[in-house]
Amino acid sequence: MSRSSTGETGKTTTDISPTPTAGRPRRITVQSGIQDTILHPGTVRINVQGAFIVVDEPVTPRNGDYEHDPKDIRLPNHTAIVSHIAVDIGGSLAKLVYFSREANSNSIGGRLNFLKFETDKIDTCIEFMRKLKADHHQLNGSRPGELCVMATGGGAFKYYDRITETLGVEVIREDEMECLIIGLDFFITEIPTEVFTYSEDEPMSFVPCPAQPASIYPYLLVNIGSGVSMIKVSGPRQYERIGGTSLGGGTLWGLLSLLTGARNFDDMLKLAEKGDNSTVDLLVGDIYGTAYNKIGLKSTHIASSFGKVFKMKRAAENDAEDGCNGDYKNHEEAEHVQGSVELPHAPGTFQPEDISRSLLYAVSNNIGQIAYLHAEKHNLPHIYFGGSFIGGHSQTMNTLSYAIRFWSKGSKQAYFLRHEGYLGAVGAFLKRQPMNWGRRNSFESSVRNSV
Amino acid sequence: MSRSSTGETGKTTTDISPTPTAGRPRRITVQSGIQDTILHPGTVRINVQGAFIVVDEPVTPRNGDYEHDPKDIRLPNHTAIVSHIAVDIGGSLAKLVYFSREANSNSIGGRLNFLKFETDKIDTCIEFMRKLKADHHQLNGSRPGELCVMATGGGAFKYYDRITETLGVEVIREDEMECLIIGLDFFITEIPTEVFTYSEDEPMSFVPCPAQPASIYPYLLVNIGSGVSMIKVSGPRQYERIGGTSLGGGTLWGLLSLLTGARNFDDMLKLAEKGDNSTVDLLVGDIYGTAYNKIGLKSTHIASSFGKVFKMKRAAENDAEDGCNGDYKNHEEAEHVQGSVELPHAPGTFQPEDISRSLLYAVSNNIGQIAYLHAEKHNLPHIYFGGSFIGGHSQTMNTLSYAIRFWSKGSKQAYFLRHEGYLGAVGAFLKRQPMNWGRRNSFESSVRNSV
């Protein structure tokens, strides 16, 4: 399915240089913009001129209910009233983006704030939005009743009635895929030090904003949340979902919550960092006793994820049935050969660390291979990974990067983003922009379709 | 990596009609063949003329040590002495193929027997081979000392010394990939009612042997054992490993042995048949409350395998901490909305049946998608699924078939085999064949390379 832009075209509120300039000329939003905003909440034009990332102490301390991402985006030149917030409600997490004026500051402009909630605690998210509505005047000068919520993700449909009724505001629903790519285009094109490549030698190598925004197309977006969507993007708002897999973040979190004592995603990742997957994975060397040189598989190549578990578990059970002194054990010892699969440690004891690492590798490698194959099929040289699964975790990014390099023999490159979890929310926030806003003309029109 | 045939060319011992005939003319192996066999064990020429599958009562009762597949292949016209057996030792299973004369029968010919052992119990397999060696004269007329073992799979290297020393026979190692495709070519080309397509409406629709053997190329072989290999086959003995995934049978067996009480693969499959994956998988309908029509995803589409587990498990833990009468539970009930993810039954209770079905779907769907993408990339219209993972299990075949149809929009077809687990073992058994043996000339040369 391919979409091109349709709908009414917004008005330009800023003058744009035909070519990017080295300096960051300050633009003032014209007065008519404010009038439009009051008449049409949600159609405000955000001045992203000179936007950049500021890493602050968290504005709101992290707690059990939500997490305030400390990587705000400063919008030093935006002066108009913002009367909307945006929320992207996925299967596991709800992501919220809102604009606020600088507190205790005389400077113009403000910042985009990024928060995430668990979708199961959606009422906490709705309560937070209710508070934003109450504080709206203080935050950016509009009246409480003027707030409008831009909503995307599956939860925009599922929780539509609840949000509308609780907040008493207009909720405008936007298509999830479209918001993702609008958000990604914005990050790629407008925000310095946002996009980076990852390797063990150079963990975070930033990619400059492109001189020609059109040069970013075509690309593949791999969005990894609970599940995985792969979206081919051919141009501004021209996209098609070409694939996906159900083996995503939800699979990792779900299986690890059953298999380890970890109760949250951060704990799982910490476990994975300490683990050794070779105690549970069957490696090529375990099968061959050496590498399978003929087809170029190293002895450390993972032949089967969790491939050692079944036999080791059963050996342990047989042992237990034999009262731990039966024939089986002696038999095992007599049988043991160099490089054998059998039991480097006591059978049946699997460490949570090793299980976590194995599953993280399995899910990440798998996504990497499928992403490469879709990129290959559609001739897409650049692959962007977004979604909350990645969470800035080095092992995950390293595995994804490695998979893309391995499968493409170095011809394709994996890109990551510092705001990887907020593509959809930012896209929903920015969607209603006039023609030619922003430094790089990265959006060609303003569309207002309720989905 | 592409290989074409090399090495010495064997001699033809049977006359072959230039075109296949409807009847099955009886061929007698000439005397020189027997002399050659004695001089060069392992170079015997199997007469596959008129071969067909017979489904018998198991010759050897199934027991804990090995399984005798009841689907023997009758070779009604083979009269020469066979002085070799073949074994394919994989990461989880060792597969054995040997020839035997018909017991209590005056008919000429004999049959191929198929057995599998667990690789962890490799000594049971070696003991079985020792017994075959002792019985060799009775089975097919050669002397015990003449037995030769053709070995393939990783275990052919890992256990080489052990087999050689225990049996005191020559062990000839063959490349795993080459054996797989020789075996598959044989099954496709020579054995009626071997290859079939699968759908729910028509579970086993047999594909006739091709009139022109060359018409089977190119094809993709997806071999699913502990891990998965994907091999592009362009012609007889022309192949390249183009991909694979570590998410294979070993992953399913390993994770299910940890997550369910099942202690063997058959039990796991029985559990899966009774399960309902929607209690653990996050479906599109769970996220949207409806289908995501815009991109054609049905509400029953699996968005995230095990995507419900994390939140349900944590809810259960919170409940337990609250003494099961705390705020959380009331909160949950108040929050419950139509079509919600939350808790169709008591939180935290996951049925082994549901877990098994979810994981079987996840692994099979994933293999199906990756297979389709590789087939698409290399323009391969036919996809054959082999390996012990499939095991004739209808749910697995249905999921694989569905995945290929879904992703290829009906343009590609999944094929299965009744001897799916024995491709490598049969290939090793048949490898040393003379030029132009067999009804359909499916092998062009005899190669003798020790790997």
Automatic annotation (TrEMBL), chains A, B:
Keywords: ATP-binding, Coenzyme A biosynthesis, Kinase, Nucleotide-binding, Transferase. It comes from the Eukaryota. Coiled coil: none annotated. Residues 1-29 are annotated as: Disordered. One of its GO terms (biological process) is coenzyme A biosynthetic process. The keyword Nucleus does not apply. One of its GO terms (cellular component) is cytosol. InterPro entries: ATPase_NBD, Type_II_PanK. This is Pantothenate kinase 4. Residues 1-20 have a biased composition (Polar residues). GO terms for molecular function: ATP binding; pantothenate kinase activity.
